[in-house]
Amino acid sequence: MRAQASVLHLDLDAFFAAVEQRDKPSLRGKPVVVGGVGGRGVVSTASYEARRYGVRSAMSTREARARCPHAAFLTGRFHAYRETSRAVMAVLRAVSPLVEPLSLDEAFVDLAPAELGDHDETTLRAMGERLREGVKEATGGLTASVGIGTSKFIAKVASDLDKPDGLVVVMPGTETELLRPMHVTVIPGVGPATAERLRRAGIHTVADLETVSLDELVRLVGRAHGTGLHALARAEDDRAVEPERETKSVSVEGTYDTDLTDRSLMSGLLTRQAGQVAERLRKHGLSGRTITIKVRLHDFTTLSRSTTLPSPTDHAPTIARLARSLLEELDTSGGVRLLGVGVSGLADWIQEELFTDEEPEQEQDVAPVEPPTQRSTWAPGMDVEHTEMGRGWVWGSGRGVVTVRFETAQTGPGPVRSYPADSPDLAPWRPPETDGAPV
């Protein structure tokens, strides 16, 4: 925890849905749900208009349709999200060179090198307001919620307190006062299973957690998790903002339409990913010391755990074994949307002696994971272009017919027309190719 409030967390509000409303004028102010549109689909993001009906991220699309049948249900347009995210990250980097993107719609910023002159509340609020206005201008009207505090944990908590389009500054010395009334699930990694374990011990709020000794927490939830909870309950968090640099890691990850709950399946998927990472390392003549797993939970909380070897490796069973052991530290009972394995601390050599005493590790059998159902040619929400009408988006399709609303972010609500699904005058639209630079 820092002496000054110099860590900022920015979270774009209902990001995917907000981009869709920006680019589709007829949907502004109306319920919009982005995600899988099929029977087994899952909501990725719901606009605030849809949230009033109880639609939430990670809810099944079936339930979302029952709660809000008049919403627009759209598949994702990741080219639009990536482009918008790049614009936001550029705004953040103009404030400070130390920006750590967490996903397309959120990032930490280290304000220490931002030359603010002072870190009093008035200065920080003025800077936060300018930043939010800059984001709105760069994105064509999207709003962001900002939290500023003395650590990553506090800044993240603060950004959630006044959504949407909010700004909360937590000054040094007020952190524990802020946290104490909150439920223990405000702490990263406290999912349903851990929360239930704590509830049975009479621990409901952060204030309750603060009174529990480290030994007792270790007994309740294990050493790694207990140590983290003990520190965060006291607002102790010294993690640095880690800006992206040139690629210094090799990783593989997968996102799943249906939340994973089977631990043996997750273990098998990590094993498979570890093998893919090892193959890439060997292909480029590299090895690495630090093995990291990335886990995105059902509520979109993203966690990572890592461990470091004394010498670099490209040995798939070793990477897999360590990845599986890291997974054991996490509470995944609520479901997992994303799993990933990465190796960093890269080198161009391997210390073979590291493995000479190890027995060969058998590759685990991995239960097959059904790939996402291939979407129809004309998916709801996708960008299209007509030879006469110009650009628009798919309103719906079926029975050999596709219906298009012709409008863009620069127009008003446009007309609706229907065409045969195989019309030669209608084609998917994609933006010009970019250089593919990372966000």
Q: What share of residues is helical? A: 25-40%
Going by CATH, the homologous superfamily of the largest domain would be: Reverse transcriptase/Diguanylate cyclase domain
Class inferred from helices and paired strands = alpha+beta
Note the main sheet.
5 strands, mixed
Q: What's the CATH architecture of the largest domain?
A: 2-Layer Sandwich
Shape: globular
Mean pLDDT: 87
The Rg value, from CA coordinates, equals 23 Å
Strands, count: 17
Strand order of the largest sheet: 5-6-1-7-8
Proportion of β residues? Answer: 15-25%
Give the low-pLDDT segments. Answer: 349-376, 434-439
CATH class of the largest domain: Alpha Beta
Number of helices: 13
Q: Report how far the terminal alpha carbons are from each other.
A: 27 Å
What is this entry, summarized?
31% of the residues lie in helices and 25% in strands. It is α+β, with helices and mostly antiparallel strands and 439 residues long. The strands form 4 sheets. A 5-stranded mixed beta sheet has the order 5-6-1-7-8.
Structure, explained:
- This is DNA polymerase IV.
- The chain has 13 helices and 17 strands.
- The two termini are 27 Å apart.
- The strands form 4 sheets. It has a 5-stranded mixed sheet with strand order 5-6-1-7-8.
- It is an alpha+beta fold and 439 residues long.
- Helix 4 runs antiparallel to helix 5, helix 10 packs across helix 11 and helix 12 runs antiparallel to helix 13.
- It folds into 4 domains: 171 residues, 2-Layer Sandwich (Alpha-Beta Plaits), CATH 3.30.70.270; 56 residues, DNA polymerase, domain 1 (Orthogonal Bundle), CATH 1.10.150.20; 107 residues, Dna Ligase, domain 1 (2-Layer Sandwich); 46 residues.
